Amino acid sequence: MQHDLLRELAILECSQGEVEKRERLILDLTGNNFPDWSVIYLLTFNVYNADKTFSRPWPNLQLPKAEALVLNFETNVRTKSYALPEFIKKVDKLKALIITNYSFSPAELHNFHVIGSNLRRMRFKCITISFFMCNISQASTSNGTKIFDAIPGLVEVHINYCNDLMTLPDDICEIKLLKKLSITNCHNLFALPEQIGQLVSLEVVRLNSCTNLSQVPNSIRTLQELISLNISDCLSLSTLPDQIGQLVNLKSMNMRGCLRLSKLPRSIMRLRNLRKVVCDKEKEGLWVPLKSSLNSLKIIASKEEANLNWLND
C-alpha cells in the first residue's frame, strides 16, 4: 500500500509540469538559498523562511501571473525587523497579500511602498505594523506616504495579534470599496477613527478580543451595508453607539464577553433586520424585552468560558 501511495504521489508530482510554471507553488526556503530560476509563473507564492532571516535582500523574482502572495516566517532573537521584498513592486497582478509570523514574538514589518494598487485583500498576523500616527514614513519612506493611499481597491483587511496597534490610520477610511474589516486580538487598540462611517461599502466588521477598545464611533451609523458586527471579548467596551439603530441591514451581532456593557441604546429597537445576537447568559436580559419589536431575533446566550488566547501574546 505504501509503495502504491508513493507511486501515485510521484505521478502527481510529474503531472504538474515544470516547477516554475505551476499555478500554485510552495517554496520551503532556508536562509538565503533561493531557487536558481528567475522567472516563476504561479498564482500562489508561499515562502516559508526556515532560518528566520529574510531580512537580507531577496532575489529579483519575476512573477507576471501571480495573484496571491503568502509570506510565512518566524522571528528570532537577532532579527525582528523585516522588509517586504522589492520584487512585489513588479507583481502587477497581485490581488492578495497574506503575511503570518508563526513565532510568539511580534515582528516589525516595513517597506509598504512596494505594494501595488491592484491589491484587494490584505491579512497580517502577529506583525508589528509601523503606521502609528497614520503614516508609514516611520517604517519605510521619508515622504509621508500613507499606507492605504497606494491600494484604494482593497476589499478586505485582516489584522490579527498586532499588539503595537493603538489606533487605525485615518486613511483606511478612504478605501471606498472595503467590504470586510477584521481587527482581532489587538489588545492595545483603544480607538477607531471617527471617519469609519465613510466606509460605506463595509459589510462585515470584526473587532473581537480588542480588550482595550473603549468605544465604537457614532459614525458607524452610516454603514448602511453592514450586515455583521462582532465586538465579542471587547472587555473595555461599556456602551454602543446611540444611533446604532440606523444600521438598517444589520443581521448579526456578537457581543459575547462584553462584560462592561450594561445597557443598550433605545435606537436598537429599529434594527428590524437583526436576526441573531450572541451574548453571555448574564446579558440575555438586555435583549429579551426587545423580541416583541424585533420579531425575527434569535438570542444565543452562553455561559462565560475561559479564554486562553492571551497565552499567545
UniProtKB/TrEMBL annotation:
Species the sequence originates in: Eucalyptus grandis (Flooded gum)
Keywords recorded for this protein, A-Z: Plant defense
Recorded superkingdom: Eukaryota
Identification of the protein by name: Uncharacterized protein
SUPFAM superfamilies per the UniProt record, alphabetical: RNI-like (SSF52047)
GO BP annotations listed: defense response
InterPro entries to which the protein is assigned, alphabetical: LRR_dom_sf
